[in-house]
Amino acid sequence: MNARTEPAEAGPGAPARPPLVRELLLVAGLFLVYKFGRQLATGHTAEAFRNAHRVWDWERALRLPDESSVQSLLLHGDTLIHTANTYYAVVHFPATAAFLVWLYLRRPARYVWARRVLAALTGAALVLHLVFPLAPPRMLGAVGLIDTARIFGPSVYGPPRTDELSNQFAAMPSLHFGWALMVAVGLVVATRSRWRWLWLLHPLLTLLVIVGTANHYWLDVIVATALLGLALAVLRPPHPPRRPVPRRHPELRRRTAERRELVGAGR
Fold it and tell me: CB-based burial of residue 265 (10 Å sphere; 0-12 exposed, 13-18 middle, 19+ buried)?
């Protein structure tokens, strides 16, 4: 993405950029809703663990791959697992924020669409978090997975009972993966470079990280993908603005007509 190969939307047909203050207030509102949802989710520990065992059994019944197969790949070296933990801790929010900032500055129409899709996805996820609290696989010692962030670092979570910043029983759906997939989809739609499909590496890496670090189940990813697909089906991306076709000068039209008459007379 650069100014030379990806020009910003400009011209009379380009959409107006939304007011910055309004957008900041919308983001702050979404954060407050998430915090409120975090408070509502407290006290559902027993239900979250019951649901975790159900999800684990459902995955085995569906013959989905065991999450431990991915974790075993990351545990080949301390550097690899530490990198995966760091990716989980520091990439999620900054990558999504950078995506929205770039769209806001360079693709205002795409920004409004992407913001609506992310808001719809996040809202649906918060409802499901409350309806179906789910402990992540790293909390299920009986399944053979370990909490890689706690053992190898860095970790963004404290003990569930004292962690006031995050809802650790909100494994399904995975907003880590849902947001990453939307970032890739949005950049593929908003850019024209033949290399734009490489943005899909972001959700692919996120998938390996969230499963390998035992923060999410495969079903968390499947549900997040389904919710995003539904949001994208309802909220279609806008068409790029059409460039106005310049009108031909009357004198040029007259000369063109004269040439056509001469060509016709010579036949």
Answer: exposed
